[in-house]
Amino acid sequence: MKGMSERESDWHAMAAEAVFDRFGSGPEGLGAAEAVQRLSRYGPNVLPAMRPRSLWERLRDQFHNVLIYVLLGSAVVTSLIGHWLDTGVILGVVVINAVIGFVQEGKAEKALDAIRHMLSPKAMVLREGHRITLPAREVVPGDVIFLQSGDKVPADMRLFEARGLQIDEAILTGESMPVEKSKNAVAEDAVIGDRIDMVYSGTMVTRGQGFGLVVSVGHDTEIGRISGMLEAIAPQPTPLLRQVGRFGQWLTVWILAAAVVTFLYGMWVQGLSAVDMFLAAVGLSVAAIPEGLPAIMTITLAIGVQRMAGRNAIIRRLPAVETLGSVTAICSDKTGTLTRNEMTVQRVVTAEQAFEVGGVGYDPHGVFSLDGADIEPGAYAHLLELAKAALLCNDATLAEAEEGWRLHGEPTEGGLMAMAMKAGLEPELVRREYPRVDVIPFESEHRFMASLHHDHAGHGFIYIKGAPERILGMCGFQRQFGQDAPLDTAYWHAQIEWLAEAGQRVLAIAFVAAPDHHRELRFSDIEGGLTLLGLAGLSDPPREDAIEAVRRCRQAGIRVRMITGDHALTAQTIGVRLGIGERTMTGRELAEMDDEALVRALPEIDIFARTSPEDKQRLVMAMQALGDVVAMTGDGVNDAPALKRADIGVAMGVKGTEVAKEVAEMVLIDDRFASIAYAVEEGRTVYGNLQKAILFILPTSVGEAMTVIAAIIFGVLLPITPLQILWVNMITAVTLGLALAFEPPESDAMRRPPRPPGTPVLSRLLIWRIAFVSLIMLAGTFGIFLFQQMEGMPLEPARTVAVNTLVMFEAFYLVNTRYLSASVLSVEGVFGNRYVLLAIFLVVLLQLLFTYVPFMNYLFGTGPIGVGAWLQVVAVSASVFVLVEFEKWWTRRRVR
């Protein structure tokens, strides 16, 4: 029994008898004593539990974040100078962020628990030939398990008997169609979706019965291996956090350097005392540190989360909002995301004609066309006969609900039912006219379904549908021109190939008359001599909004790839119709490549078919090695490692497993690919608004710092005191700066290429703009202060004029900042964001209080000023609006 629980053993490629030999077992199962011994040796059939983090560890980790470091640093600086109100506000933001993160992290740690809960709680086991029900945790390698419809598979098993057994393997393969199982061995290199002789822990039996030999339990199972992959993947920092980290380091170095140089210059050159210069250096640091920026960044991200929720995308981790804006590649599942997950008959082929069928999904509205022209189905008797057969040899029903037509039954039968209704047939009426007497249900061994009907005169009819190669072998005739003609096998094989090349699943539909009053359907009744009515080509059609979303993503410079467990030809056909491309690679081909070869081949491939969990994770890592920021969609347990490894994991909210949802950063409420495109647009808007916030706040900080430095260099009084600087920073951050978080998407947001992943927060254009605006603010604020002093104005009113000039500079500059490079000289540019106008109104109101309320005069060292001074303030501060708009125009002209 060496290696009996080793995953690398190719149980699917071995004969069932050989697997029994390897495990020292037989069809009657293990003995009780042997089972106890093996349970002791291999342990219980459960997934190992990861040690959960304590509440303290989870709370502590909420502060291990660059954004939080910047906030705490700002709080330390403001507390050192005694500005306790500002300190309290900043620490309040820190606490709120920590609480939100604490709650979200608690949810995220449920991912592995969700996997463990997917295992079956019990199993029907054969021990010494007797069936007994045991807790699934007591199942051991070598046990024989009985499976039947409705059971959850308790362990990985090699089937040795299967009767009509179908398994829903969506959690592992992502494909919604149940898989027909067989006891026959398959090729050694078969991927999971093709291992029809294996069943896997956590999957569900949808039909039939079977017996299997347990080959893997616990962490050795396929689902256990995925659980291990999840534990091994470390969380990836978002581009925003990486860039903010670099930006924070850069800003800290420059602020400290400027403070030290200013301190030394004042002492050695100006001869000022060390105490005075220390206070000046602190004032410089206070001026240069953008205390409000971290809070505005957090609020901007939170607003982005709310907007995305309104577009059916739920963000589970705040920084992920910005990451969406930098996505360069989207890897999407096919079924239900890019397609409707509704099998639709698109072509019907008879011996005389090939019809196109309109409409999508299970909605029974659509037209038939022939040679491009719409037709009336009732005028084609052979088409109606085929539609009637498809309706009668069918167990599905369609019911209209508020959200659309709902299927009860198998997807393929639902597609056939919708086709029959499009042909004008009423299911209940037809079934009453030709009631079913007996049926041979579909089973994988014979690959067809047959139903016996009679009319009310007692005449019998047998209708058969199934795999075309199986049905053709049972037919001797074909329905042509209203009568039976000899079967043209070559014609039908050509039509089957034509439909298959279009990526459609092909079903053949046949008919044979039964003796009058025949009441029992036997296999001998349909072994030969059937009349072939025609073929139906079905496919899961692309979503119309997905086609448009793919186009928008391509226009935005985002590469969309399809990664699916479906067959290559089907995936290729859908890929072409969606506009993704047609260059396809299978999981088998991918497995033969090393990582370097995969990275080289990746730019040439659009579609990956028949993929495994390792394949998906390798693809994500290969794309990241090429410099891509990757968004990966998924819904099953098999997708969880790739979702966690991607820069943005996107889980399906409708059909997704809890495992996928807990691992992902974003959950789609409606499972539509179009919602991802909307989320990317919102992510770009969020990043743009973050850039605008930085572009707005930094010139104020730099201008204030330069004002302090200029005063020391020229040996004059400070135009603005450190306390007044804090006032300016506080009110502009919570009013003017916050307004930019509500900026709507710019019209060209999805017509620009993604920014390169390594792009710094501050581009050369932004650095130039910050320097340019800082000099304007410095000249205006410093100049108007000196002018007022020369005119004999007392110090307190002169400083009041300087503070109001600086604040009004920011108010005018806020309107400039709405567009980074485009002109705002339009109705939309000036009035398009009502929050900007509201913020300017509030800040003007606050400045009036700052200027005229005696308490504020006492607290901040200010004094009332006259109307003439206000006119000077407005005239000087308005210059920034004119100069920045001129600079934008000049820059756009040079770019042309």
- Class from helix and strand fractions: alpha+beta
Quote the beta fraction.
Answer: 15-25%
Q: Gyration radius, to the nearest Å?
A: 36 Å
Q: Tell me the number of strands.
A: 28
What can be said about the biggest beta sheet?
11 strands, mixed
Helix content: 40-55%
Overall body shape: elongated
Structural features, described:
The chain has 896 residues and is α+β, with helices and mostly antiparallel strands. It is built from 33 helices and 28 strands. Helix 10 packs parallel to helix 26 and helix 26 (722-739) packs antiparallel against helix 30. The termini are far apart. The model is unreliable at 1-8 and 104-119 (pLDDT under 50).
